[in-house]
């Protein structure tokens, strides 16, 4: 295989992989002036987080962008008129090792279109991971996409060689999936997730007894949903996330604003803005559910089916629940402090620690580095001063918006570009 052909494949298959955000963000700017193999500029280097929270750079590619399916939202769908390519198993192994030795990457993120069948494709993904681990002694991070419909045995093998496994749900509702990917069923995603969840539990419990038991997908499993392709509400999206977090012990759900890529009456037209701000608000809601003790129905319900894009979801919730404020810095439970707009968990812990020794006032909070620009409308402390006075929710919202320049305004209509 010529160097030019490998480079061309790399370009095609790294570009096709950029639509998968389940290993988050950005590309490498590192280039190779000597024209040797491994010029990383624009060649699909992304970043992800390992089990212990380290940020690692990954070679992010598809094994192939051929696919027997025709999911309307996907650039790889069989009816799309694009240049196709496929790597051999050994090529991916060689590229990974090559990039790793050059210090361009610390691991591999490998996904694929489906050629022939789910098992045929999954077998090749597993073979890459197996060769890297057993033949190349590669101990870097490996994230494998599980192919929906692949057999249990292949899923089990994948978990023995990969750090993380993920199956993308893609479309948040059954109705949306039926509309845009009628060949697929929700069960095709759920079954591999059940398998991975059960194997993780099984291997962990065996390891507690027999120390030599290998690890199974120690980085857990994750999934991704495309946002804005099928008209679902934020309420539906977050209930779906909640269901997958609770039932499959997912480490992360990723939200990917739909990038219009085809002329299809079922989808937003080409040129429609990518819903970047909505995506961001969904991530914030996800965070509130996982770390701040919020339930989905508190933030999204039949009266409020979509998030307010003007303000973050915690502020949105607080403005609708002003009767629960002000919260007393010196007496409130941790749960309520965590619900104060503008207070992160770090500040909450600092406050709880500090108030054990003294009654806190505004000056103390300032000196502790607690951000009060929004929190001051929802808190009282020693002085009992209270900035909100008799303002209604809408009045308070406009006051807060007047006094803050949203860091998100500038990205309102920008296109998602994972490789810049
Ligand atoms: S099966 Fe996957 S790769 Fe193939 S068209 Fe559907 S989403 Fe794209």
Automatic annotation (TrEMBL):
Pfam families: Radical_SAM (PF04055)
Keywords recorded for this protein, A-Z: Iron, Iron-sulfur, Metal-binding, S-adenosyl-L-methionine
Cross-referenced Gene3D superfamilies: Aldolase class I (3.20.20.70), Photosystem II 12 kDa extrinsic protein (1.10.150.320)
Coiled-coil stretches noted in the UniProt entry, renumbered to this chain: none
Domain named Elp3/MiaA/NifB-like radical SAM core: residues: 57-284
Keyword presence, Iron: yes
Cofactor(s) listed in the protein's UniProt record: [4Fe-4S] cluster
Identification of the protein by name: DNA modification/repair radical SAM protein
């Amino acid at each position: 295989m010529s160097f030019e052909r490998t480079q061309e494949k790399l370009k095609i298959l790294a570009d096709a992989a950029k639509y998968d955000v389940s290993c988050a963000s950005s590309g490498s700017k590192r280039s190779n002036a000597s024209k040797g193999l491994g010029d990383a500029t624009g060649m699909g280097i992304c970043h992800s987080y390992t089990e212990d929270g380290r940020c690692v750079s990954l070679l992010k590619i598809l094994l192939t962008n051929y696919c027997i399916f025709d999911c309307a939202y996907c650039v790889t769908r069989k009816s799309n008129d694009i240049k196709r390519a496929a790597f051999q198993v050994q090529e991916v192994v060689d590229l990974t090792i090559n990039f790793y030795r050059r210090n361009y990457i610390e691991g591999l993120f490998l996904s694929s279109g489906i050629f022939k069948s789910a098992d045929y494709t999954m077998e090749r993904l597993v073979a890459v991971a197996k060769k890297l681990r057993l033949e190349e002694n590669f101990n870097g991070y490996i994230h494998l996409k599980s192919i929906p419909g692949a057999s249990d045995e292949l899923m089990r093998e994948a978990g023995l060689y990969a750090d993380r496994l993920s199956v993308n749900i893609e479309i948040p509702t059954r109705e949306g999936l039926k509309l845009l990917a009628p060949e697929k069923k929700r069960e095709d995603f759920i079954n591999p997730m059940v398998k991975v969840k059960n194997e993780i539990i099984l291997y962990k419990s065996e390891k507690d007894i027999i120390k030599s038991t290998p690890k199974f997908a120690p980085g857990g499993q994750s999934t991704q949903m495309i946002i804005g392709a099928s008209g679902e509400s934020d309420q539906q999206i977050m209930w779906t996330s909640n269901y997958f977090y609770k039932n499959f012990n997912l480490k992360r759900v990723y939200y990917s604003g739909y990038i219009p890529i085809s002329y299809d009456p079922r989808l937003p037209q080409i040129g429609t803005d990518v819903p970047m701000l909505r995506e961001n608000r969904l991530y914030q809601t996800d965070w509130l559910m996982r770390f701040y003790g919020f339930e989905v129905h508190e933030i999204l319900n039949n009266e409020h089916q979509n998030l307010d894009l003007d303000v973050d979801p915690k502020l949105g919730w607080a403005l609708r629940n002003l009767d629960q404020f002000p919260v007393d810095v010196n007496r409130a439970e941790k749960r309520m402090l965590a619900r104060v707009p503008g207070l992160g968990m770090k500040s909450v812990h600092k406050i709880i620690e500090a108030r054990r020794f003294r009654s806190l006032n505004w000056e103390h909070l300032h000196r502790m580095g607690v951000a009060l620009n929004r929190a001051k409308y929802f808190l009282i402390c020693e002085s009992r001063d209270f900035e909100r006075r008799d303002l209604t929710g809408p009045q308070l919202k406009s006051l807060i918006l007047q006094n803050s320049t949203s860091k998100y305004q500038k990205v309102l209509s920008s296109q998602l570009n994972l490789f810049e």
